[in-house]
Amino acid sequence: MYRFLLSRQWVILTLVAVLLIPTMIRLGFWQMHRYEERTARNDLVASALEASPVPVESLTAPGERITTRERYRTVTAKGRFDTDREVVVRRRTDSDDNIGYHVLTPFVLNDGKVLLVNRGWIPADGPSQTVFPKVPAPPRGELTLTGRLMPDETTEASGIKDLQGLPDRQVMLINSEQQAERLDARVLGGYVVLKTPEPRNGTPEPIGSPGDENAALNFAYAIQWWLFAAAVPVGWWFLVRREKRDRETAEDVRPAEAEPAAV
């Protein structure tokens, strides 16, 4: 009755179905793992953003790496901006994906250490990208700033190539070790995205808060893969039943077609 299942066509179809089921189940578990990872990151980011501000030197020091738990923490620092040794970070985009620069300004603390401060985005609308762009000045004198603590950028983590031979005072990555060598100073590990004081006239354009990763989408994909896995045997059985029915119908019709016409 089901001997057709031993045909080459049906053996291949059955093997494909057998392989698809565990593959789809594994893909569902992978998406669920991604959902859990993203949910955990979202919780960590939310917790960091909601935490009370702390002095920057309580979380970092020269040569120190910023951990995942310290990332996005709001920190405070007291000192002054050193615009004479300011640099710009190339190939950065604003909220509308326009290409420009991030303004990276050393902030000299009262104890002489240096904190790297990303003051925001400016457009690359100068006459040449080899010329240092016009950068709005920060407030003068001693002040207290607040910002979000971020880890050093690396090519491995960001995918940005650290190009050499750039124009003067232009860099590709925000990296405290590189800047410590350039400035010949004790630079705190990581850098800070400036929150306050806010720039005058909105320039440089402030960098927005990190958004939530879409963890719900991964959860939906996991359910989708598992539904696909459940649908494979159902679809296979439906095809088997239809094949059996078609063969039975063909067998019933064949004798009638072979019967000789009445004289």
TrEMBL record:
Bilayer-crossing regions: 219-239
Pfam families: SURF1
Signal peptide residues on this chain, from the entry's feature table: none
InterPro entries: Surf1/Shy1, Surf1/Surf4
PROSITE patterns (UniProt xref): SURF1 (PS50895)
Subcellular location(s) per record: Cell membrane; Membrane
Recorded topology in the membrane: Multi-pass membrane protein
Key words, A-Z: Cell membrane, Membrane, Transmembrane, Transmembrane helix
Chief location of this protein within or outside the cell: membrane
CDD domains associated with the record: SURF1
Stated family: Belongs to the SURF1 family.
Protein known as: SURF1-like protein
Source organism of the structure: Streptomyces violaceorubidus
